[in-house]
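Structure first, sequence second, as always.
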């Protein structure tokens, strides 16, 4: 079995101002990246090695003082910028020559030291010059610093903060004693918790997400109309609105995912989700459609990612026909129905919960859920367990983390 390496980017603020030497380093790094990008564009190469061969001497000359490892890292950043540019060129959406505007620098774990007790990062600038950054620590940060099972990954420095990557092997998922199967739609996750012959409906409602998205969509249209004469202003305004709403949505999706996973953990459940890979947005419908698919994919991603960290097994199944199949007699209905699924055999159930029963059925019949069984006839219509509801988003501050994702 391949053990997954999980990476988590933890954001730290500084206790003091960023030292002037470090500011210079940020500027040097940006310059080096942009120079490397220019060389790469001229020579039409994107790999870090090719860039290094072509440009190392010149760059070394232009930036005589910069620490060699930082220069190597600048090549790496330039390489990924160039790769993205090439991808956009192929897709026909590249509209400018790439360069980095933002001040930042990235370095691998060989090039910096971190005192995990005191919370001091030691960053070399040049051969004879280091800066020490004392980081502001909270309980949240301590969890990562104090735990030996986390090793250190890259460090990314910005003028006002630093992101340190903590790495850990994924824990082995537990053997499930029950299954939660969830069908996702624009406003909620609906599904069932199944344990042997008990099948109980569960629900995690996040209708605020759809509301935020709709409001964002309307406001964006209004802004575009209002500032139609000034494209640049309109673009800037839209972008600002966009990122604010984006954060609001992501914050809620994280809360939903945490609630679902804590529930799953408390019952030692495996989580069954539909595999959204093949699902494409329907372009012929309104723009709304396009907007609404993103949060669903994102929520699935967040659940999967967090589940890996917590050792909760996730099973993804092909959702084909799941919304049109009768879990009792197996017949497939032709058309999409209203809010309720109805079958000739007399079975009827909320459309989304019905779909989740079918997902669960697929997972179990394919043996993906260990030896667990399940009996759709034992479904209890009268009780719904609420895993999450909008009131639970009542504002507590997000903790300033960001997901870097998992690497195999
Ligand atoms: Zn039926």
């Amino acid at each position: 079995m391949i053990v997954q390496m999980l990476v988590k980017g933890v954001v730290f603020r500084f206790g003091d101002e960023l030292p002037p030497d470090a500011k210079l380093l940020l500027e040097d790094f940006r310059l080096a990246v942009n120079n490397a990008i220019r060389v790469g564009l001229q020579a039409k190469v994107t790999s870090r090695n090719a860039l290094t061969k072509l440009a190392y001497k010149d760059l070394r000359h232009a930036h005589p003082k910069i620490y060699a490892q930082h220069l190597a890292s600048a090549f790496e950043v330039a390489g990924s910028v160039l790769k993205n540019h090439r991808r956009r060129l192929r897709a026909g959406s590249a509209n400018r020559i790439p360069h980095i505007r933002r001040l930042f620098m990235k370095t691998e774990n060989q090039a910096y030291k971190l005192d995990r007790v005191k919370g001091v990062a030691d960053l070399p600038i040049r051969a004879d010059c280091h800066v020490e950054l004392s980081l502001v620590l909270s309980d949240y940060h301590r969890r990562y610093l104090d735990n030996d099972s986390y090793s250190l990954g890259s460090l990314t420095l910005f003028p006002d903060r630093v992101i340190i990557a903590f790495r850990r092997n994924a824990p082995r998922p537990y053997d499930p004693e029950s299954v939660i199967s969830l069908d996702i739609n624009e406003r909620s996750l609906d599904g069932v918790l199944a344990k042997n012959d008990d099948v109980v409906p569960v629900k995690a409602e996040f209708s605020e997400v759809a509301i935020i998205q709709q409001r964002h969509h309307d406001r964006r249209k209004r802004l575009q109309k209002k500032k139609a004469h000034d494209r640049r202003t309109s673009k800037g305004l839209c972008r600002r609105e966009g990122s604010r709403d984006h954060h609001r949505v992501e914050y809620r999706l994280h809360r939903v995912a945490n609630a679902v996973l804590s529930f799953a953990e408390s019952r030692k459940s495996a989580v069954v989700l539909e595999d959204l890979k093949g699902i494409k947005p329907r372009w012929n419908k309104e723009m709304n459609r396009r907007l609404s698919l993103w949060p669903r994919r994102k929520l699935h991603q967040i659940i999967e990612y967090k589940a890996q960290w917590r050792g909760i097994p996730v099973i993804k199944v092909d959702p084909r026909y799941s919304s049109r199949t009768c879990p009792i007699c197996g017949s497939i209905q032709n058309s999409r129905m209203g809010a309720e699924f109805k079958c000739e055999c007399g079975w009827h159930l909320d459309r989304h919960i019905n779909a989740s029963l079918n997902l669960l059925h697929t997972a179990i019949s394919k043996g993906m859920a260990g030896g667990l069984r399940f009996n759709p006839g034992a479904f209890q219509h009268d009780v719904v367990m609420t895993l999450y509801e909008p009131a639970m988003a009542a504002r507590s501050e997000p903790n300033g983390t960001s997901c870097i994702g998992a690497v195999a």
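Margin note: Residues 283-290, 396-408 have pLDDT under 50 and may be disordered.
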